[in-house]
């Protein structure tokens, strides 16, 4: 019943180690991806100059404002063309 052989213990240890290193490796890959994405966003921001998005610290984050005509939350840079406004 309790057959704790050295092979089973070794295999269990190896399996745990494999999972542990897989998670460590995944975390490193994820961190690398995040770093690359941040640097790309920073480069794009630098080339784009000072737009409304430039003052945001997080890349890809935009301020949203509520449209007074349709009530939808739209980007604050005024790119929203309101359907309700066109109809009236
Ligand atoms: Zn609208």
Structure write-up:
The chain has 88 residues and is mainly alpha-helical. It folds into two domains: 1-49; 60-88, no CATH class. Helices cover 55% and strands 7% of the residues. It is built from two helices and two strands. It has helices spanning 6-48, 83-87; strands at residues 64-66, 73-75. A two-stranded antiparallel sheet has the order 1-2. It is elongated. The model has no long low-confidence stretch (mean pLDDT 83). It binds zinc ion. Zinc ion (ZN) binds at residues 67, 69-70, 72, 80, 82, 84.
Task: Describe this structure in a few short sentences.
The protein is mainly alpha-helical. The chain contains two helices and two strands. A two-stranded antiparallel sheet has the order 1-2.
List the helices and strands and how they pair.
Elements: H1 6-48, E1 64-66, E2 73-75, H2 83-87
Antiparallel strand pairs: 1-2
This protein binds zinc ion.
Structural class: mainly alpha
List low-pLDDT spans: none
What spatial form do the alpha-carbon principal axes imply? elongated
Overall strand count: 2
Oligomerization:
single chain
Strand content: 5-15%
Helical region count?
A: 2
Order of helices and strands: HEEH
Distance between the termini: 81 Å
- How many distinct folded domains? 2
The order of strands across the largest sheet is 1-2
Q: Main sheet?
A: 2 strands, antiparallel
Helix content: 40-55%
Computed Rg:
26 Å
Bound ions, cofactors and other small molecules, one mention each: zinc ion
Overall mean pLDDT stands at 83
């Amino acid at each position: 019943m309790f057959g704790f052989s050295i092979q089973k213990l070794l295999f269990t240890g190896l399996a745990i180690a494999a999972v542990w290193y897989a998670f460590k490796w995944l975390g490193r890959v994820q961190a690398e991806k995040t770093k690359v994405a941040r640097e790309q966003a920073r480069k794009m921001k630098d080339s784009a100059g000072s737009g409304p998005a430039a003052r945001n610290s997080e890349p890809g984050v935009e301020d949203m404002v509520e449209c007074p005509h349709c009530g939808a939350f739209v980007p604050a840079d005024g790119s929203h063309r309101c359907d309700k406004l066109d109809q009236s």
